[in-house]
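INPUT
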Amino acid sequence: MDQVVAVASADSIVWIEILSRMHDVLARHRFQRGPITIGRAYDNDIVVDDTHVAAHHLRIVPEEDGTLVAEDLGSHNGLFLDRDPERRTRVVLDGERALRIGNTLIRVRTAAHEVPAEQPMLRSPHYWPLAIACMIGVFGLAMLDLWLSETGEVKAIRYFTPLLILFLVVCVWIAGWSVLTRVFTGHARFGLHFLIVAAGMLAYSVYDQAAEIGAFAFSWTALATSSYIVAWLLFGAMCFAHLLAVGRTRRPLKFAIVAVLAAAGIAMQTLKQSEYRSNYGQPVVLRRLEPPALRLVTPQQEAAFFTDNAALRVELDKARTEEPVGGDGLDLGDD
Amino acid sequence: MTENRLQRFARLAAVLVLGSAAFTARAQLPAPATTPTTPTEPAQIEPARTQPEQVAPMPIQPAPVSAAAEGIYAEARPSLLQIRTLVEAAGRQSSIGSGFLVSKDGLAVTNYHVVSQYALEPKTYRLEFARPDGTQGALKLLAIDVANDLAIVQLDGKDLPFLKFDAAALADTSPRGERLYAMGNPLDLGFTIVEGTYNGFVEKSYNPRIHFTGAINPGMSGGPAVTAAGKVAGMNVAKRLDGELVSFLVPAGKAAALLERARKDAPLDLAKAREEIDRQLLAWQADFYHALGEQGFRGTALGPYQAPESAAPWFTCWARTNADQTPKPRAQMDSTSCSSQSSLFIAEDIETGRTELSHAYVRSIDLNSFQFAAFLSQYYGSAGMVRTWSRKRLTQPQCHEDFVERGENGTAPVLRTVWCARAYRDFAGIYDVAITTVTQDRDKEALISRLSMQGVSYDNALALAQRFVGEVAWTK
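OUTPUT
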């Protein structure tokens, strides 16, 4: 060996890291300070299997003042800084921003690069017991609802099928969010997603039952017919919570996306209902009666009830001339 | 109560106009049928082509035309008309019926339903007549009588042959069993004469109709039914689809009265035909609901409840129970349904005039109180507004529902009540209204009552409904 190996001081060690798109380190190479070449050819210090990288693409060289500089060796596709669209021939390296050649991201750090302080070990909260409790509540309420509306022959399949479908949908939903979270943060956070969906569904189940019963108890039909609005709002809240579990950044954007989604859902369903009514002339009345004991409101006096009925006439007469007939094309007549 | 559950009334009478789409169905006299029969028959757009196919497989039942009929037909033939409604743009017939001349200056009688398309849409359709000798021409619509399904039309001409009304028929003194000869142009096949029997007035029909036992068929609508002396006793109007030879005639007196009116009054202004129909509907329902009110309600005991049923004679009532169902029902439901025989044809998609009262006494066999309430919900939720709804003809229903208390505290059960009403787009002041009540005094027993009124004024609906609700009580 005729070459003297330099003493490995902190500054003389260079780490070259190949990054994924999400900036995870895929490979890390340790070098002594000195020109390091990167390219597809096998005479490089680092060989990159990226067809958009030139045979000899990049060279990392130390400057006189100790900084490291990356130089394009005359490649066709050029050298860029991470997502920056501007092509460069020479980049002074700071150990933070990644270089991009072809589709490959490269980060260069010296041994002197400072790393942040260690994060305290947090014991991840136990979401599971609560999530399971919520889910039992959801399934329990669903079963109870089915049982209380059972007026014919009791058939196990009536209970089994919806529950199975509910279970599968929940599984797929949680799995989807977990995969997404895993991709972005590296942790699946399965338990948290499970808790979010279980809590959201429990909230809706409880509200839905309460709305149905309340609509009867207070003789307030709109409570039951508008429960879909609450369903969409809860769905939006659930999605927002999932998104926060994925990452706590960009909250206003996430909130906006969820708000638009919920608003679109409410608008769609409202439109669908009104279309259905105008196509089939369905009356809007209470769908579910409850046992008389659940009535909380004082009954209307007969005379007052008929006064209210009489008042509907004005609306009907208005609708007679104003309500759109609709373009079913049957009205050939010319009134 | 949902129609398919509580009602097994098949709509089984058809008016006898032959239309291009299908024979107009009409529930003139509903009757129980073990299997529901749909009143529509296959469309016959081109009779010439369908004719041989139709005749071949069907057993031909020639009307038992006696020698007398030959003479009667020969005498009446020149006075007969086929009345065609043509689509103005296409110049082809859209529906056909019959009619007959009643004066030498060209006045003729037919059914309102034969000319209804033209009356409602005079810019889309026109009327034409064809006589047995092949002459054709335009018809003018002079007068209509919606309640009796009659119309007076006029064709140009002088010294035309015509038929006279039978004096006994005008006085309603025709003897039961009298031979009558119905004439017209069935199914666009050509003018025919059919021998049949006069069987008095249909007992339960509010609008007077003669029960004629004879084969009258679509296309014969508006044609005359004459006595052996060749005098008109009635006009062919409808037949029952669930019976054999059960046909109906409008009494001659109604046509004579309308003819009188047509001669006196200015001819119908076609631009205002809807207003005229509206006026007639309002007048008709005023009489009908006045008569209904006079007859009043009588209470029928259903379990611990008393349910109001109309005492009027023109209701047909049927009862049913689910007790014999398999699997064994978990709540027993005994129901009665009374339907007035007062249907009015306005257009193919507007049939009105019926009133229906139904009650169902329901008690739980092994349902808990929530399940029992769910069982009742099935009948409550439709609110009586499910009957055929056409967006073109009716507005969307408006409903009001609440718990209702009657009288002094505790003298009558609290009722969960829903009132739904929709307006007729074509006719001001005419509505379909239904009120449904469910007793709220017990958790496993209830009386569901419903009153539905078609083609009623809002005030009449309110008055009758209030009376109806007031009569739902406990038996004591």
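end of record. Chain B has a mean pLDDT of 85.
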